[in-house]
Design goal:
The protein is built from 12 helices and 8 strands. It is an alpha/beta fold and 314 residues long. It has one domain: Alpha-Beta Barrel (TIM Barrel). An 8-stranded parallel barrel has the order 1-2-3-4-5-6-7-8, surrounded by 7 helices.
Length: 314
């Protein structure tokens, strides 16, 4: 894929400056992007590398429950699994974080202590349709409950209407409200229609101060896809080249198998390099992926799969 040319100057928050910059980004060759991910998806992985990739994938998981019927008991059970994914095998690493609604952040923090991160969705998740005052209150409540990562959603309606400055200013305000907490900005790529828009939204979020850019809420189809993730990875690579800042990427929604996770790791390595192959710079947002990673890990260690009771039903 074509690499972004050097940038003489980055835009400020002026609406005209933002529009000129975002619409001046190179267009995405959608056919080329799909061909690239298809080719990388055929890479064969040796068993030793596969075992390493499975453990790395476990460490990159944001174990997630985002349902209206979530209860403190369900969150505590998920947190126990996040800290000790396999109680029978202490060599299995903990996941990166648990991800919950903000009102359950305190329950999650009490359950995990400082052993894994607590991420809370905020800013009127999943629609992003609320006043800025409500969105900021949402963020502050989650942080007061113990969240050290905030997953915010952008206002896709404003973005698609070309109100880039409005989206930019909201991200800036949320970042300020986060204090020391890391900010993941959810683009909801399934609603952005084109890969060109995914590239523009990625740059807009990074310019406004995102620590991570995230594909999706998991509530919209399609959620994470390899072509979308490729475009986002290219954006963080080019942003690093332009600014020196390293921005993380979180692929969320629809990633359920070890095979899929490993394909994403190959995509990361081939697009941005092994510097991003760490939980601080790449995450999977998932509720069921961990189960398959555990099953595949045990099969590689013992030569057979465990019975149906080996993993929990999520």
């Amino acid at each position: 894929m074509t690499r972004l040319a050097s940038i003489d100057s980055l835009p400020d928050a002026n609406p005209g400056s933002l529009r000129r910059f975002l619409h001046g980004l190179p267009g995405v060759d959608e056919v080329g992007a799909r061909g690239r991910v298809d080719a990388l998806g055929t890479r064969s992985i040796k068993n030793e590398a596969k075992a390493w990739a499975i453990d790395l994938s476990i460490r990159m998981v944001d174990l997630t429950t985002l349902e209206g019927m979530d209860t403190p008991g369900k969150v505590r059970a998920m947190c126990a699994k996040a800290v000790r994914p396999d109680p029978t095998d202490p060599s299995v690493p903990s996941v990166a974080a648990v991800c919950v609604y903000g009102d359950l952040a305190a329950t999650a923090r009490a359950a995990v202590g400082d052993r894994v991160h607590v991420a809370a969705v905020a800013t009127a998740f999943p629609s992003g349709r609320a006043s800025l005052e409500v969105k900021l209150a949402d963020v502050r409540d989650a942080i007061d409950g113990g969240a050290d990562e905030i997953d915010m959603v952008i206002d896709r309606g404003a973005f698609l209407a070309g109100e880039y400055a409005r989206v930019f200013e909201e991200i800036v305000a949320v970042k300020e409200a986060c204090g020391t907490a890391h900010l993941k900005v959810i683009l909801e790529t399934g609603e952005l229609r084109t890969l060109d828009n995914v590239r523009r939204a990625s740059w807009l979020a990074m310019l406004a101060g995102a620590d991570f850019i995230k594909t999706s809420t998991g509530k919209v189809t399609p959620a994470a896809t390899p072509p979308v993730t490729l475009v986002m990875l290219e954006a963080v690579r080019d942003f690093r080249d332009a600014t020196g800042r390293l921005i993380g990427v979180k692929a969320a929604g629809g990633i359920r198998t070890s095979k899929d996770a490993i394909k994403y790791l190959v995509l990361v390595n081939e697009t941005v390099g092994d510097q991003w192959l760490v939980p601080d710079l790449f995450r999977f947002g998932a509720s069921t992926l961990l189960n398959d990673l555990l099953l595949q890990r045990q099969r590689m260690a013992t030569g057979h799969y465990s019975g149906p009771d080996y993993v929990t039903i999520d």
